[in-house]
Amino acid sequence: MTPMLCQFCGKNPATIHFTEIKEEVKRELHICEECANEKGLGSTGPLPPMLFELMQGGRRESTDEDLKCPRCGITFGEFRTKGRFGCPHDYEIFAEPMGPLLEKIHGARSHTGRLPRGRTSVDTAVADHLLRLRRELKDSVRAENYEDAARIRDEIKSLESSMSESAASGTEDA
Q1: Residue that is last in its domain, among 106, 136, 159
Q2: Which of 14, 86, 117, 126 is buried deepest, with most CB atoms within 10 A?
Q3: pLDDT bucket at 60, cuts 50 / 70 / 90
Q4: Cα(174)–Cα(172) distance, rounded to whole angstroms?
Q5: Could you give the CA distance from residue 85 to residue 80 in angstroms, rounded to a whole number?
Q6: Domain count for the chain
Q7: What is the rounded radius of gyration, in angstroms, for the C-alpha atoms of the chain?
Q8: Cα dihedral 129, 134, 135, 140 sign
Q9: Which strand (E) or helix (H) includes residue 16?
Q10: For residue 29, what is the domain's CATH number?
């Protein structure tokens, strides 16, 4: 079996091998000791940042790990290490990089939880919509946008009355 050659010089046998697996994509780097020393990847060098730069072709791009909350200062890398956010604002700041993590854990990007007995996903969707409308109503009143507030109030009343009617007809059938 012929030895694997260095991916940089193409001459010397590769004696240092790195493997990165990110989001189910595997990337490998095979390098000789001479090139590793030239690139600063000796045993005492700063391996992770240098390795990242090396695998990116010498340029370091911003990653999700660098993302930082302007309020509490926690980075996404710190969250991944600690397993906890620093403040409630982090859920918005880190929403994009959290997507794949949530998919791995829950099988979906948003947590839906279990439905109580007797409730359907339609009931839950209407309840979620009512919750959003109530928030919009508060925001409209706070912004003194009374026309929108009145429209939202009427929509809330309409949804609530239709929910009451469907609940009443559901109990009569039972």
Answers
A1: 106
A2: 14
A3: very low
A4: 6
A5: 9
A6: 3
A7: 27
A8: positive
A9: strand 16-22
A10: 3.30.60
